[in-house]
Every structure is written in C-alpha cells, then in structure tokens.
Amino acid sequence: MRTLLLYSLAILFSVLTVSVTAAERVYDISQFGLKANSKKNASPVMQKALAKIKSEYKDGDHIVLRFPKGRYHFHEAGAAVREYYISNHDQDNPKKVGIALEDMKNLTLDGQGSEFIFYGRMIPVSLLRSADCVLKNFSVDFAAPHIAQVKVIENSSSEGITFEVAPWVNYRIAKDSVFESYGEGWKMRHPWGIAFEGKTKRLVYNTSDIACPTKGATEVAPRRVHAPNWKDARLVPGTVIAMRGYGRPTPGVFLSHNANTSLLNIRVHYAEGMGLLAQLCDNITLDGFSVCLKGDEDPRYFTTQADATHFSGCKGKIVSRNGLYEGMMDDAINVHGTYLKVVKRVDDRTLIGRYMHGQAWGFDWGFQGDSVQFVRSETMELVGGKNRIASIRPHDKETVDGAREFVISFNESIDPAISEQSGFGIENLTWTPEVLFADNTIRNNRARGTLFSTPRETIVENNLFDHTSGTAILLCGDCNGWYETGACHNVTIRNNRFVNALTNMFQFTNAVISIYPEIPNLKDQQKYFHSGIVIENNEFETFDAPILYAKSVDGLIFRNNKLKMNTEYKPFHWNKDRILLERVNNARISFDLF
Length: 594
What we know:
The protein has two helices and 48 strands. The chain is mainly beta. The chain has a 31-stranded mixed sheet that branches. The protein has a seven-stranded antiparallel sheet with strand order 15-14-18-9-10-17-16, with no helix packed on it.
C-alpha cells in the first residue's frame, strides 16, 4: 500500500509539473511596436519578435503569435537573410525572408484575417525544421508583382499591337526600346506570357504560351505602349496578357524538414514561384489554403508564376481540401519525389547519384535506413530489388546545402546491371506520401490542373476542374528530363466535374485525364510503370474528343463516368480518340452520355 501511495504521488507530481512548466504563451505583434494598417516596415519587427519568442520558449510550451487584423508591409530592408535551396526553384542565394520561422515546436501564427504585403523579391513566409505548427488566417501578396499585366487596345497585322499597362505596374521603355517593369530592387523584361479573355478571365483558346516581342516599343499616350513587332491575330482588343519572365526565385510559403504542419484559411494572391513549396516534410494539411484572386472585382488576372502548391520528397499524408486555385501559371498541385541519376558505380554496394534538373538540387535526398529502388531510364522499368541506405553523404560539397551529388552505400549488393553507362535512376520510397485532394476548385490556369507521382494511396475527389486549359489530371513519372518520381500504384479519381479542359496545348496534355510517364523506349518495355488506377463517377463536359489517355498501365478501371458534349469551342486537339491506350493491360472501360 505504501508503494502504491508513493507511485500515485509521483504521477500526480509529474502531472502538476507539466501543467506548470508547459504553458500557452500568447504574443501580440503590437507588443513589439507594429500596428495594423501602419506603413512601418514589418520585417525587422518580425526578427525582433521571433528572437524574443525563442529566448523565452520552454520545452512543452504552446506559442501563439497573433496579428491584429489589418495590413502589414514587409520590405527587403531588415528582413531575415537565408541560404535556402528550394526544390523546383532558382537556386540563387542568399534570399530575403519576411517571416522566417525556424526550429519551432507547437507554434501557431494567426493573422486573424490580416493582409501581408511584400516588396522586392522575397520569400514571404518560411517554416523549417519545426513540428506541430499551424499557420492560419492571413493572405500573401506583393505590392508590385513581377508579372506585368497589360490589355490589348489595338491590333493591326501591319502595325503591331498597342497595349494599355495596368495601373499598378511600374514600367519604362529602356534605352534599347524594350518594355520593362520594375520594383523595389528589381527589374524585369517579359519575353513570353499568357493571354486571358477580358470578360471571363479564362485563357484565350488555342494560344498556350505566347511570345511578347516589345523591341521597338514607344509610349503613344500615358500608360499606352505601341509594340510594332508584336503581331499575333489571336490577341483581339480587350485581351489581357500576363507578361512573364522565366525565373522562379521565391515561393510564397516555403516548408522544409517539418512534421505535422497545418495551413488553414490562407490566401496567396501572388508569388514569383510556387504559392507553396514543401520539401522533406512529414504530414501536411491544407484546409482553405488558396492561390486566388481577391474576388470577382479584382482587376488582376494572374496569381503565381508557377504551381499553386508543390510537394517534393514529402512523406506521411498530404491533405489538400477546400481550396480555390486560379490564374496560376502551372498546376494547382504537384506531388513527386526526385530521381538521382547514377553517375558512378563505386563498388557492389556504393553508387554516386546526382540531382539532374537545374532547379532541383542542394537539399537532402535521403537518410540512413530509407528504402530505395532503381529504375532504368530508357524503359522506366525497375531493376533489381528494393534496398536500404546504409550511409549517405554529399560528394561535391562539404555539406548537403548546395550539393548536387551524393555517395550512397546500401545494405545489400546492387544488381550488376546498374551503372553509369546504361542510364539508371535511384528512387527514395520512404519519402513518398499518401495524398487526399478533395473539395477544391481549379480554374482559369495555365498548363495542367493536378499532377501526382507517388506510389502510395492517392484520392482525388469532389473537385471542380473548370477551364484548366491543359490536362486536368496528370499521372506522370520521368527519369529523363524533370527527374520527378515515380510510379502510381493506388489512385482513385471519383466524383469530380471537368468543364472544358484542353483549350490549349502544353506538355503532357494528351487528354482531360492523362496517364503519361516519360518512356523513351516504350516498344522494348517488358514491365508496366503505373498500376491500380480507378476513375469513376465523374462528369466530363467538353467540346473536344480526348477524355482519357493512358500509357504503360497494368490495371485501369474507367467506369460510371458521364460525358456531355458542348460547342463552346471548336475541336482542335490532335488526339481524336475518346479513349487512347498505349501498352495498357487489364483495362475495363465504359462511360455514358448525358
């Protein structure tokens, strides 16, 4: 009895100790001298606030950082300066960060409906090496986006185009007669762009990426520019053009090496890269995260320079629901890993692997104990069995940051066929996520609606794909160009509505749903790449023929889907087949007209 009493007292003491030492610490940004709707630069204030929060943190604390509702302005001056290597972005460093959250636990940043406005070329928000954090209730925008919006006023086949520059765009005609825009610490020329219908904000039919040749430009009236060499009959007066550069230096929100992150009720109105880029994260929930305009009356037609959301080398589960994705220059969501190309076989258990794409290197690829497999690039077939990493270290750098190559030793011997001569990639299977993408609206964007490349369960349901311009859903896999893994083996696409996809042609846009791994030598392929794909109970409303394209699939079900034809656009797609299959096994196909 005495022992039991002492044990009970010990438990009670431990509980009381935890309740005393673990607390919810609430910080209000106004405590640090930053008031809502003031013009004060918020960047140095954020540095001060985060330093204080870290200095006062005690293990087990729950931290809340609140912003009274209003508008806050973040400039490059006084911002955090970081060396970040960010997947699928330009690897230029250092980078300026407005809100740099690092090494946090149990942090909630609550904007309470605030607008965060950024200037120059910055990462608005970063969260790194953190666990159990919540970002919620704020929007991200830039005062001067790097995309220049213009409206066609006149279009002459002989005289060129006259356009009107949107009122928020700072611009000039350079000494060499080229139109350029500029902002705080940056200037931009725009060799290409995307054309939108003036009334609907949809992409102009059959235009895809357009050239924007402004050499020889002159200003003919205030905010009106004549470009005599810009000749394109498709750009009728009233067309709105988002003129772009090629770079993607900074995402709107950057997540790296986190666990259990939630992003709730966040709106990204512009970023010069992805709206959200997450890499090497475990469990991410997006609920009400949107990359969108500021409502129907917003004079802008575009949002982000690249994908709305992008997940590279993550694991656990990615949940993305109740979002609005519109006006972005690429996919609403892209989920993938990265193949390392085998550049040297050191011995029977050791390889050197290299990041190949120019915008995907410099960050961790794997860790000791991770499960991996090997793929032959030419046929995208697996070679040898699965293996595990015994050790991994950077080969061309002292540290992982900035590394392109890794020396990787494995627990088991590697298949003799795998070497640098034959073209092989290494896929990390541990860092692959489950995905739920549900109850979202994707509309009026460039390229594709969604892209999934993960072997784990992927569910795409109850979404509206409205004029996505290219393929609405793409299942890919590529160890030759983008080097984005990998094969899908458990995909369900159900209860979605597709409205007039394929108004334009972009990469991988063979049908509304395109299952399109990049396989250079399909005729010699013996195995199949994708498997276990079910497409059911969807509604397709379309003006053109192709609904489903599939390549190298074993196990494809297409059932209980309804098709309704319309005449909103003239059919033009090269693919005249409703269903086009290349090297597909065990397929069951049926659909109904309605």
